[in-house]
């Protein structure tokens, strides 16, 4: 762990995904990674550990040292696979932390156990897998879950009864009726961590020793951080697109990051289909109009609004799980003529200013963000450049004048930058690559323009090892998780898609 990982965990470490992967080094040690979501709901790495064995004692030691390195801060929820050693170690080290299981792994096992040999009675029969999906995602009351699971258990083959019993015994870690109050940020699986594991396996070799492995791992971490810098940078260029000019949405666009604003805007749109069924004191019953007759009707929700304390609680528990207000709560706020989000319901971890607070390590030293000044400079330059662009794009002469000026300015920057002493930087690069320095090769060289370097990189076909981003295969689905809405008829796991939020 480094300082930036500690700072990231201090800001975004309420929910942690822990997963292990193999085959990344010649010692055959397992790599355990701690990851989560930042304020853009993108992957952020909190730490990693190489483990020579996967015993309960080893996992307990890793979790204990992880908490110790983070000043004793313990996560609210931890997602893992079904490894019994991990479960036992979490009970020992983090007894007050909610332990949740990856539903993706459970569904894959369920498909193997429940689909083989089962014959559907008619076209409306969703099969055993469909019944299991209802137990996992649909039932909100524990009594409904118990009844549905009991019916399911009576239909499985005897050879699968052991697995059914094991899954039932850990139902508190995966069934919706037990997880609806858990703070998960909308996560239901460890797919985010496994995407990083996929990068590790694709770009790390099992022949690497530990030292070389750590060098490559740091490059992967740097690539993830560069993506965060880009998201922060693009956010300064353009504000989220507000589709409706209403105060609560305009406020959300000013405080939330782009991805979170889109989720909140979707809830605002759904609130337009909501209606107040009844009012009993400060308790509102909110229903939803079923526009699409083919979709199942949405359940009515109970919303409790306290005007004096400015608190609102919905029975759907979306805010408690994800950290943004639901459409039912937004409907009640509109009914009460509240045009802004109550301050307590704007979580800083989802805001544009989430990285602005100061973080100290366990020795009381302030952790400096080395890239913060870089982000601020880039944002300032792009704001000024954006103003110039808006003024000249509609005038050909002004456009050509600015374009020529920028090209001349680029040449001056390259010339000035090329006069700097390059001996130290060249030496550091050679040491990092463990290359032998050639005798007499101390000549100062002109730095090439950005477009020259770009063309050379294309010729290299991504083989330039100095470019850390070329080691990473981009993925657009890093922050996507499974939901019950995409299981269709609950019968075919291959048709499962991902969505951003549960």
UniProtKB/TrEMBL annotation:
Annotated stretches, region: Disordered: 418-470
Database matches in SMART domains: ZnF_PMZ
InterPro entries for this protein: FHY3/FAR1 (IPR031052), MULE_transposase_dom (IPR018289), Znf_PMZ (IPR006564), Znf_SWIM (IPR007527)
Main location: nucleus
Gene Ontology molecular function: zinc ion binding
Domain of life of the organism encoding this protein: Eukaryota
GO annotation, cellular component aspect: nucleus
Localization: Nucleus
Record key words, sorted: Metal-binding, Nucleus, Zinc, Zinc-finger
Any single biological process term in GO: regulation of DNA-templated transcription
Stretches assigned to the SWIM-type domain: 301-337
Family statement drawn from the similarity comment of this UniProt entry: Belongs to the FHY3/FAR1 family.
Protein purpose: Putative transcription activator involved in regulating light control of development.
UniProt protein name: Protein FAR1-RELATED SEQUENCE
Organism of this sequence: Rhynchospora pubera
């Amino acid at each position: 762990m480094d300082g930036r990982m500690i700072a990231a965990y201090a800001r975004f470490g309420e929910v942690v995904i822990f997963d292990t992967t193999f085959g990344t080094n010649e010692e055959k040690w397992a790599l355990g990674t701690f990851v989560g979501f930042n304020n853009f709901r993108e992957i952020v790495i909190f730490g990693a550990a190489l483990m020579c064995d996967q015993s309960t004692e080893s996992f307990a030691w890793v979790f204990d040292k992880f908490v110790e390195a983070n000043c004793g801060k313990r996560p609210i929820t931890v997602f893992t696979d079904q490894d019994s050693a991990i479960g036992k170690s979490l009970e020992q080290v983090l007894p007050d932390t909610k332990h949740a299981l990856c539903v993706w792994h459970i569904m894959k096992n369920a498909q193997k156990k429940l689909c083989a040999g089962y014959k559907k009675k008619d076209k409306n029969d969703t099969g055993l897998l469909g019944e299991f999906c209802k137990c996992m995602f649909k039932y909100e009351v524990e009594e409904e879950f118990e009844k549905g699971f009991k019916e399911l258990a009576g239909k499985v083959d005897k050879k699968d009864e052991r697995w059914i019993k094991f899954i039932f015994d850990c139902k508190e870690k995966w069934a919706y009726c037990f997880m609806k109050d858990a703070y998960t940020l909308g996560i239901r699986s460890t797919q985010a961590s496994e995407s990083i594991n996929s990068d590790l396996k694709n770009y790390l070799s099992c022949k690497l020793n530990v030292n070389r492995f750590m060098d490559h791992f740091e490059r992967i971490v740097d690539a993830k951080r560069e993506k965060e810098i880009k998201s922060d940078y693009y956010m300064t260029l353009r504000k989220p697109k507000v589709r409706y000019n209403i105060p609560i949405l305009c406020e959300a666009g000013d405080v939330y990051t782009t991805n979170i604003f889109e989720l909140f805007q979707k809830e605002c749109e759904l609130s337009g289909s909501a209606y107040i069924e009844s009012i009993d004191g400060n308790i509102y019953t909110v229903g939803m109009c079923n526009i699409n007759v083919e979709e199942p009707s949405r359940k009515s929700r109970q919303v409790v609004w306290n005007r004096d304390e400015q608190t609102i609680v919905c029975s759907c528990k979306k805010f408690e799980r994800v950290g943004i207000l639901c459409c039912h709560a937004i409907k009640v706020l509109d009914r009460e003529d509240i045009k802004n989000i109550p301050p307590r319901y704007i979580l800083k971890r989802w805001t544009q200013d989430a990285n602005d607070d100061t973080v100290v390590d366990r020795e009381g030293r302030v952790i400096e963000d080395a890239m913060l000044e870089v982000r601020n400079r880039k944002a300032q330059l792009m704001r000024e450049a954006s103003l110039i662009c808006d003024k000249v794009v509609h005038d050909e002469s002004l456009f050509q004048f600015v374009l020529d000026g920028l090209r001349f300015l680029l040449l001056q920057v390259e010339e000035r930058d090329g006069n700097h002493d390059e001996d130290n930087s060249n030496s550091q690069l050679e040491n990092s690559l463990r290359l032998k320095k050639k005798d007499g090769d101390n000549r100062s060289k002109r730095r090439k323009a950005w477009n020259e370097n770009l063309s050379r990189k294309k010729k290299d076909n991504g083989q330039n090892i100095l470019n850390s981003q070329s080691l990473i295969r981009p993925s657009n689905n890093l922050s996507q998780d499974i939901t019950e809405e995409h299981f269709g008829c609950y019968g075919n796991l291959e048709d499962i898609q991902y969505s951003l939020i549960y």
